[in-house]
Amino acid sequence: MKYLRQIYEIMLRELLILRQNHIYRFCMVFFPILVIFFFTSLMDDGLPTDMPVGVVDLDNTTTSRSLTRKLDGFQMSRVVARYPSVTEARRAIQRNEIYGFLYIPKGTTEKLISSRQPKISYYYTYTAMTAGSMLMKDLKTVSSLGSAGLGQATMRAKGLTDAQIQTLLQPIKVDLHQIANPWSSYNAYLSTMMVPGIIMLFILLISAYSIGTELKFATGKRWMELADNNVTVALLGKFLPQTIIWLAIVYGYEWYVFYHLGFPHLGSPWMLVLLGLMQVLASQGFGIFAFGLMPSLRMSMSICSLWAVLSISMAGSAFPVMGMDGALQSLSWLFPLRHYWMMYQTCVFNGFPLIESWFHFAALAAFLLLPWLVVKKIKNAMLTYVYIP
């Protein structure tokens, strides 16, 4: 009962600090909510659509104009201009007016009819990788459709049936299965990594900041007195209110993206609850550990911000960890976001049982327990250290 009373008193003190300091209000509530709505609305369509492309049609026949209409009909491409030469189209790419263009040389239809294998060229910029890869797919498809359409008409004139034509045009039929994300939605996989990563950044910074300000404003001794110099009780009382607020933000985010926006998830709701809890506790554990490792407000927050920013690259969602250098693959295990991402894609995105990602769950639990390594140093800092700007 003594410990519970001390924790309760420290919690009341912490709630008063949270209320008086506007930094907590912005970094724990306003900015995380802003990040959630910003990223999920930024890619609301799932894939980029109506990306500008150009056409250089020197053939100017019914067949070439049909190819242009087909390209314009694709969801991700929109023909915005027709150019008289390749040079003009190239300059348009350099001016960032279009992402690519289709080049149909003169005599294409004539060569196609006489089976002399004409060449159709398409150019696209890979400065923006997403736009380049999407347009490459559309340009390649429309080039294939042109030859296939003319071949289909020729074979039908020779009396071949539709089944025979289909077999000749596509000898091997591809049966494609895009598991868990059949819409190829960038929003479904990028927002579910970026938003938790940025929320974890705020948790790391606020955890280090809340202890560092006790040292900065010389209130650490009073904080320890309320806990009878028991640093475990002091930390529990200080971080319980923050944990409750962070859990409300994380669970609100999970409800919004998985139930309101309908992001794909095959795992149970209890798995989402567990994942959110481990996300918050592991981040707080690392933030406390960072301050204990370097009992300085400036240095501990620098460590937390560096670690959180690197986590976004090392999580493995944009570039797979298996494709990284061996040293970077080993280093990736030191980032909480990496283990969160692996648990998410295994247990939530694909719906596999927790046992399939037990190592990542254990790693998050280890981050939660990291403060035990530095509690004595934190206590010593609160009682004896003098803040140096």
Summarize the structure.
The chain has 389 residues and is mainly alpha-helical. 66% of the residues lie in helices and 6% in strands.
Description:
66% of the residues lie in helices and 6% in strands. The protein is mostly helical. It has a 4-stranded mixed sheet with strand order 2-1-3-4, sandwiched between helices. β1 (51-57), α3 and β2 (77-82) form a beta-alpha-beta unit. α8 (186-216) runs antiparallel to α12 (297-314), α11 (269-293) packs across α16 and α14 runs antiparallel to α15 (358-369). The model has no long low-confidence stretch (mean pLDDT 88).
Instruction: Describe the sheet with the most strands.
Output: 4 strands, mixed
Query: So how many helices?
Result: 16
Rounded to the nearest angstrom, the radius of gyration is: 29 Å
The SS-based structural class is mainly alpha
Principal-axes geometry comes out as: elongated
- What number is the mean pLDDT? 88
Strand order of the largest sheet: 2-1-3-4
Indicate the proportion of strand residues. Answer: 5-15%
Low-confidence stretches: none
Share in helix: 55-70%
Order of helices and strands: HHEHEHEHEHHHHHHHHHHH
Number of strands: 4
Distance between the termini: 39 Å
